Fold:
Amino acid sequence: MNYTTASSYRSGRNITLADWNDAIASTYLVNTISLCFGLLIGICGNFLVILIYSHYVNKNHKGQGRFFILPLAYVDLMGLTITISLNLIRNTRHVLFPGNFTCKLLLFGSYVVGCTSLFLLTCIAFQRYRKICRPFSRQMTKQHLRSLLLLCLAVGMLLNIPSLFYYGTTTTVHPLSTNLTGTVCQKVVPGTTLGLRLYQGVGAVVSTINVGCIAYLYLMIAKTIFRKGRLKTLYKNRVPEQQSSTLTSNTMEFEENTKSATGNPRKKKDSIRRLSVMFMILSISAILSYIPSWVLIAIETNNSEFWNEMSPWIFQVCLILRRMYIFNHLSNPFIYGIFDFEFRGHVRRLFCPNQK
Structure:
């Protein structure tokens, strides 16, 4: 992504590298402010998730239903720190980027956390599928889940090793003064390079497979929940309420639930549905946040002048869409707050200890 010829240039005469950098930074001001705001919200939100789930919620629930929430929060926290740091440096020091190592490290880290996050969402979907659609089959233990977590991280790192070779710092020349050169963090090879194309193609295929698996698994989950809800309704119309409750308790015992819901099939069923819907919404939010970035990456890869052929307002909109993947790392705490009543209760007690 190269914005060095954005529409902020005045003249190439008597301009310094700092002037050039300031001119570019001014075009990013709106995006810079929004990134700082997102960083503040995201760090606070994910830190709160880590605090609440590690000290309260997970201690009350020894099952595997919420196992991936903490790792996902850590990945989101790292993702926010790395990706927003990279983009803030690009915004404020676009032609004064501080070093090739910094560029490679931040880019590699941003790709790894994005890839790992998507893999984790696939693992969560598979776990929910086993719990809800195959409740009486052999379930994954915590050791299996820990192994999956390490596998997600390892595959995410291995898949993105090529980025260390295709991205880094390179020099760029001022469009109005050939004597003025700056240092930018971007691709160091042409977009038509075979290796880069293969790397991007593999990334696109892996992402598509992940999205397809997530969509299929949650479709099966939704169908199962809907079918069991209908079966319960039909059964209650034919047998006494006590027998119906026993059936529901046996067939819907996929996962642990809050202590207050123990022994109450209706509350247990509602909690199971909420947890499943929560992870479903979380996955949909992540996919929707990545789609604009994927589309713009494909466009800019095939059109090197894409960012130089638009008006300032269109540029700002496209820049926000290009970096929409950041929303995936800061939205999850809000989703937990909406669907996980116990998490929301602990947050309320943390900030309003005197409130009953």
Observations:
- The first strand starts at residue 167 and ends at 174.
